[in-house]
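We emphasize that the prediction below concerns an isolated chain of 68 residues; any contacts that depend on oligomerization or on bound cofactors are therefore not represented. The input was used exactly as deposited, without trimming of termini.
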Amino acid sequence: MRDKMNSHEMQSELILQLQSERRRFSTQELEIEKEKIKELMKKSSVNKGVKSAPTPVSDDILQSSYGL
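Result of the prediction step, given as a token string:
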């Protein structure tokens, strides 16, 4: 019984550590990633000869992909 509690406590501790790591991903880093994605989208649409403007990367998409 005691072993189960310890493993449960360890799991809780790991979850807390992961959550704090995720929070460390700063907004500055997120902005850099956003710019990289926008540049890649521009390049890919130019290379394919697409005449319409690339779809802007919305914050919602980025937040869901980074889990923020």
